[in-house]
Amino acid sequence: MANKGKISFHHTYILVLLGIFVSLLTLTILSIVFKLKENIVYQELILGFTCLGFVVLLLVLIAEGVSLGFDKTALKITFFATLFLYLSFVFSNDGLFFWHFIGVHVDDIVYRIFLALFNLCSTLFVAFIFQFFENSYGGKRFHFYHYPILGALFTLYSAFCFHGLNNAAFFVLIAEIVYSTIFNSLYYLRIRKESNKFAAIISNMIVMFMCFAMGFNHYLVLGSCSFMYFAIFMGYVFIYASFLVEKTNEAYRYEEKERLRQLEGKMKVTCFHCFDCFYNDVHLDFPSKKSKEYFALLIVLKGRALTIDKAITYLYPDKDIEKAKASYRKIISEIRNYFKTIGYKALTFKRGETHLNITNLECDYYQVIDGEKKYNQEPLMPEYDWSLEFESQCGDNLS
After folding, report:
1. What percentage of the chain carries pLDDT values higher than 70?
2. Is 9-242 a CATH 1.20.1070 domain?
């Protein structure tokens, strides 16, 4: 409740990205209204945006390609999404403008091919983003339907473009954009209740930017793709920045946990001749003999889970099962309250089992079975009949 009303870093990223998108969309519309494509200063601005986009997206693509060597499963989808994003930018009108600006002539048939390739790469980018949603957030899998539908729309669009039927191609493009927008919205509705949804929301916004780019690119709006792609790669930057911030916070949290662990009192346990425990050099006086025996069982299990069935087998071998369970519950209550009183936090109680964290625990039995000291054939916890089963593990380190 303390964080209610505060804006997180993630909310800030989303607001900034929306601000960038609205600003660039406004600039794109102004370029149409005032016919800025003939203005040399505007052309140089677009050239700068285009070169920046080429470089940044190429660096992201290289980084994801290198990262595939470490985590193929998680990064394969985003790598292909970025690859097709980059190729779509290369085949966009702003990409063609770059070649035109440096003096390379592009005839009409090449332009039509580039228009079709731009549509193909953009469509594949959207499809891989949809697959990212599905793989990351589960639920009903739609992408088997995406590919044939988007493939059919792309085929129609390309056919109309090659025959110079720009109006018909535009209607197919509208169908692609509407289809992508509808499913984009469905994915958003699915993920909006997830606890870790930032990357998915940014990706959702990126699809929206791509839809605008597809529409403006068809009608030769100079700068539209460079502006939209600038917003897209800023979305990438925000995702990676968020990832780095989260990893940094995790590192700080880990260091804090380690610091607290070091500050936590140390448990010293002696198991040979008799079983005794010392916490911060103070001898522990357990609330009952059975609670002490229960802790002795946890010690010899060396971090493995002590289930209710195993505990009853060792502690109450001859007792009625229902009475044994009642006694077990009493032991759990006693030992939980006792260790809570002295501040010992190494025990974890789950439904039907108990775990002991042995990280900050010194035990002569562990030293023997780990080979750190020789076994002098001293009796292991002679007060407990079941200890002979565990004493046999010491035989490999006889002095």
Report:
1. 90
2. yes
